[in-house]
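Sequence design from tokenized structure. All designs in this work follow the same two-part layout: the structure record, then the generated sequence. An example of the structure record is given first.
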């Protein structure tokens, strides 16, 4: 049983990493530095203001194609992906997700917060890597 649990945990972590890698690679070069900066700040915003507060802040700063819109889309997509560690359906758009967060119970809210923080850890790593790669060109 221990092997099975460890194997499943590794698979979930690998799924997060693969999804984050794909999304970070899709960020246009012109946005990657701001995207990386937001990926580094967002976990602290979440810990300070809660997931709903951090999402509301980013949603208010979201404009077509900017880093706030991109990262909210990526997080919403990850939470809606079957490989994520979220056992219930969530809206795949950031506004719908924000509305859902406001109305959900505290257990689900904490579960999603933990998942988002785990996902952002991978996003931050890959964004750092992509910025360094672009610097070396």
């Amino acid at each position: 049983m221990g092997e099975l649990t460890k194997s499943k945990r590794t698979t979930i972590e690998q799924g997060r990493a693969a999804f984050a890698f794909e999304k970070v690679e899709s960020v246009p070069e012109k946005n990657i530095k701001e995207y990386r900066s937001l990926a580094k700040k967002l976990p602290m915003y979440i810990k300070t203001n809660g997931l709903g507060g951090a999402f509301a802040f980013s949603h208010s700063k979201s404009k077509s194609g900017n880093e706030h819109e991109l990262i909210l889309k990526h997080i919403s997509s990850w939470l809606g992906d079957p490989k994520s560690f979220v056992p219930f359906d969530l809206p795949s758009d950031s506004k719908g997700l924000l509305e859902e967060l406001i109305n959900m119970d505290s257990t689900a809210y904490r579960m999603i917060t933990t998942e988002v923080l785990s996902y952002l850890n991978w996003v931050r790593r890959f964004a750092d890597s992509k910025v360094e790669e672009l610097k070396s060109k």
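The CA atoms of residues 34 and 75 lie 16 Å apart. We note this feature because it recurs in several other targets discussed in the main text.
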